[in-house]
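Catalogue entry: protein

Sequence with per-residue C-alpha cells
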Amino acid sequence: MKVKLVLLALIVFPPVFAAEERNIWSCEGISSIGFFWQGGSWSNQSYAPTNYFFTVGSGGDATLIFSGYQWTFENCVSSNIIRCSTDLGNAIVMNLSTGQGAVSSIVAAAVPPAGEDANTFMERVQCNQVENN
C-alpha cells in the first residue's frame, strides 16, 4: 500500500529536484585586443587567443572558465543571442545559432590598481556546443 501511495505521489506531483538543463560550449579565441596598466599608465596590448569553457543553465545562470579564471553570471538574457555580465564589467555575448561572440573585461579600465599591473581586453570567439544535458 505504501509503495502505491509513493508511486501515486510521484505521478501527481512532479519531482522537486528535477535536473537543470545545461548547455556546454567550447570557445576558441579568434582575435584579441586590450590595454595593459603598468607603471601608472595604460598602453595598447595584443593578447594571444584564449580557449574558453562556457556553461549556460536554463535558469539564466552561466559560468565562463579560461586561463585559471572563473566568471560566474546570473540573470543572463537570452533569445537567439545570449548576453551575460557581472557587476564588475566582465561579459560574454554569443549568437546561439552561429556560436560567434565576444568576451570582455573592463573592470581594470575603470579602477586601475595602485602599484599593480592590470589589463582589460575584448576578444572575439567562435564557440561550438559540446553538450546539452
User: Anything to note?
Assistant: Residues 20-132 form one domain. The chain has one domain: 20-132.
